[in-house]
Amino acid sequence: MKTILTFLGTAIFAITLIAGCGPSEEELQQQQLERQQAERDSLERVYEAQMEQMVQDSIAQVRQDSIAEAERQNQFEFSDSGNFAVQVQSWRSKEKADQELSEWKDRGFDNAFVVQYGDEETGDVWYRVRIGRVETEDMAKNLQDKLADEYDAQSWISRLN
Question: Which of 23, 36, 71, 93 lies at a 20 to 30 A Cα distance from 104?
Answer without folding.
Answer: 71
